[in-house]
Amino acid sequence: MAQGIQVLVVDDNPVIRELLLNSLSPLATVEVFAGASEAFGRAERQTPDLVISDYRMPGLNGLELLAKLRVSFPRVAVMMLASHSDIKGPLAGSTPLVEDFIEKPFFLEEAIARVKRVLDRIGLSKATRNAADSSSLRGTLAQMSVVDLMQTLDMGRKSGRLVITHAARQCEMQFREGQLVHATLENLTGEEAVYKAVAWAEGTFTIDFEGGECPRTITSSTQSVLLEALRLFDEAQHEAETTERAPQQNCSPAFQPAFVPAV
Questions:
Q1: Model confidence band, residue 158 (pLDDT cutoffs 50, 70, 90)
Q2: How far is CA 193 from CA 85, 103, 142, 159, 216, in A?
Q3: How many Cβ atoms from other residues are within 10 Å of residue 170's Cβ?
Q4: Which end of the chain, N or C, is more open, meaning fewer C-beta atoms within 10 Å of its C-beta?
């Protein structure tokens, strides 16, 4: 779903630039830059979809680049590479402006998985902006989670019907200008249906932008429903881990993922 997406990677460390370029090139069109000023100049010539920037760099740092991007290109997604102390310290106030943080040091595989989720959200957002009223969009939950789908429709203020299929079960959600107004899952309606569907990690989805009439069974905001769904999901996971946790076994891993140290 990330086809046609432009990504700029900004880091003064050539090793990290090369790693991210090689890992992300199969997913999007990627350009790398050693400095923030150079990257911003490139953005002025052609607006990218995503900028992945290190925080601590000579000259213009990542936070200053973020500020310039938000003024000139408010729709550009930004991810930041930074240490834990920087994320909790000088970058804490920028959290609402950043799509996601990649905490250094990091395992490359985990970092690319986080970037891919952002790329998939961008791809869906672009598709919904360009879709005609009568069109539909299809995909899998491996590409976009239920939470990502709901957030994208909410932020894009889209109207239509989201149908999620998992195993032999189907959940339908109706949106009006981004507001979730109705949901059904077998004998469940309203928020209860959403709470169950959010836990689905496998399956397919269809967004029908034509939508249709439906009763209103949800009056809370989409974000409020999502927050409660995630709270219940985390609570259920914690209970399952507590009761079903197996004894840890001492064994050597068959595969050691690439580890990128903090620099």
A1: confident
A2: 39, 34, 21, 19, 13
A3: 15
A4: C
| 227-256 pLDDT per residue, tens | 999 888 888 888 877 776 655 555 444 445
The identity of residue 236, as a single letter, is A
CA distance 80 to 57: 12
54 φ/ψ angles, rounded to the nearest 5 degrees: -70, 155
Q: Residue-wise over 188-208: b if at least 16 C-beta within 10 A, else e?
A: eebbebbbbbbebeebebebb
pLDDT digits (tens, 9 = 90+) for 199-238: 999 999 998 887 678 889 999 999 899 999 988 888 888 8
What's the CA gap between 2 and 143, in Å, rounded? 9
Domains of the chain: 6-123 (3.40.50.2300), 132-244 (no CATH)
CA neighbours within 13 Å on the CB side: how many for 141? 18
